[in-house]
Amino acid sequence: MAPVDVDLFQKHVSARLSDFVDRRTPWHRRLWGHGLVLTLKEILEASEAVSVGVLSEAALRYLISTALKLMGPDPGVGPPQQKNLLQQTLKTELRFRGLDYVTLAQLTRDIEENYLNRWAAALKTPQTAPGPERTARSIASHLLDVGLSFDFLQRWWTFNVRSKGTGALPKLVAAAHGLARETAREFRVLVAFESMPATKSGMASNWIDAPAVSHWLRTNNFEVTNVRQNGGVWLKVTALDPWAAIENALEVIDRIAARISIGTVGQLSPLPVAWIDGQRRAFRLQRHRRGVEVHALFREHQLYSEGTRSNVDSAIELLGPLASSTSPAAAVAGGWAAIEALLTGAGDIERVSAGDRMALLVACSLVRAEITALSYRIEEAGGVLRDALAICKSNRDRSAVVLSAIRRGDNMNLRNEHSDLAAVARLKAVLDDPHKRLRDIQDHLDAAFRRLYRQRNLVLHWGKTDGIALRGSLRTAAPLVGAGMDRIVHAWFVDGVTPLELAARARIRLERINHAREDGCLDLLG
């Protein structure tokens, strides 16, 4: 085994953690899956769903196989004896409320209580820890899975890395364990409105009028000059951090708005900011995009197209809730409906096959997306490739230049941009064995799309709008749906290639790929 460069390892982990807790990170550098603890909790929920006929035994077994892969090298599981017991438990029939089910529930609680502390201990000896990518994925997914918000984690991680340095990684992970183990607390959120219809018996019990809103703002040293409001409500929400509290409050507001839209002719118009009792700053009250980006609509002049409608046009419409709806149930239903409408074929027995095909398209898009983004970073940094990149006529040409440089082992002049250096390392691994690596990537993507399908079934067939993995599934799958749709839209509007034809093309080219042809990874869909 080659010796581990501890400093490089810690910088790699830190950079990838920064990527994973930033909601602006592009899809090809984001988290695609859940952490081990949430996956184990999802298994418990799925076992109950199987018992009432909502999920199939096959769906549960697939989820269990995902957990077994996650726990393989994960030090957060605990000592070897506990890992062995967990593996044995997962390989049983796992009947709801049976002995193995109860055993799994107790093991899951122990893992959750000690997870990041065990990781912090493992990171004191990086030579024996898992690789930097797996390390960063495991830690970041756990923090997001417990309910900490992107906004809070990004601020917290950036501040601590800058003040303590990446060399303090074990201590930072131990501190993160404290964050993850905090009990969610109650926040009082003040949301003010430009308009809010009254109920039959007057305003809601938590309503306060405009003078009371202004008085509270002034008393708490907030500027009121440009605040145009006609009253507001105090909402009590439970969360781990203030930004998560604002997100939860927005969900409450949207549920109220849905009732108003069908129960009266009035309209709910909240201000774009909200306030939290005890916090000295105002918070933006906005719906965050989930990362569903289909830029081909802009590139191919289809934003305002009103021509003959196809199933691609219909799927684009179905994606609306996935992109921006605050309702997780509507987002899951719309997102899966778009996938199924495009990638279900004649003779399909299982609808989940559509998700597997979307995973294939996204896997075949990854290298081109990563190298294209990297090419602009390299050109910006200067160095030997800048002139070669500057004369390129297309992103395909730019990608070919960078790919050849990676093959040769050229210095990219990226200095200390460790997120970019980590991307180069991942690309090198793909180029060394493209068939194996891209198949592995496809497996990870399969898991994300199958999770979305399971959540869709829980919502539509069980009415479960508070599933343990519902919000996490949207966080991980939505950007991937956008990436797949971008390729589908391009193929359809440019070349008239149907989604199933595109999936078949990807399937054939991925099967034939080998490392001998240098640019084979760039043309899997084109």
Distance between the termini: 39 Å
Total strands: 5
The neighbouring-strand order within the major sheet is 2-3-1-4-5
Overall geometric form: globular
Estimated structural class: alpha+beta
Strand-residue proportion = 5-15%
Main sheet? 5 strands, antiparallel
Radius of gyration: 24 Å
Helix content: 55-70%
Please give the domain count: 3
Q: Tally the helices: what do you get?
A: 21
Uncertain spans: none
One letter per element, helices H and strands E, the order comes to HHHHHHHHEEHEHEEHHHHHHHHHHH
Q: What is the overall pLDDT average? A: 92
Structural topology:
Elements: H1 6-20, H2 36-51, H3 57-71, H4 80-90, H5 99-122, H6 132-145, H7 150-164, H8 169-181, E1 185-195, E2 207-208, H9 210-219, E3 232-239, H10 242-263, E4 269-276, E5 282-284, H11 296-299, H12 311-318, H13 320-324, H14 328-343, H15 353-381, H16 386-390, H17 395-408, H18 418-432, H19 434-462, H20 470-495, H21 499-512
Helix pairs in contact: 1-6, 1-18, 2-3, 2-5, 3-19, 4-5, 5-8, 12-14, 14-15, 14-19, 14-20, 15-17, 15-18, 15-19, 15-20, 15-21, 18-19, 19-20
List keywords for this structure.
21 helices; globular; 526 residues; 3 domains
Description:
The protein has 526 residues and is α+β, with helices and mostly antiparallel strands. The protein folds into three domains: 6-181, no CATH class; 185-284, no CATH class; 291-526, no CATH class. 61% of the residues lie in helices and 6% in strands. It contains 21 helices and five strands. It has helices at residues 6-20, 36-51, 57-71, 80-90, 99-122, 132-145, 150-164, 169-181, 210-219, 242-263, 296-299, 311-318, 320-324, 328-343, 353-381, 386-390, 395-408, 418-432, 434-462, 470-495, 499-512, and strands at residues 185-195, 207-208, 232-239, 269-276, 282-284. Strands 2-3-1-4-5 form a five-stranded antiparallel sheet. Strand 4 (269-276) and strand 5 form a beta hairpin. Helix 1 crosses helix 18 (418-432), helix 5 runs antiparallel to helix 8 (169-181) and helix 14 packs across helix 19 (434-462). The chain is globular and about 75 Å long. The mean pLDDT is 92.
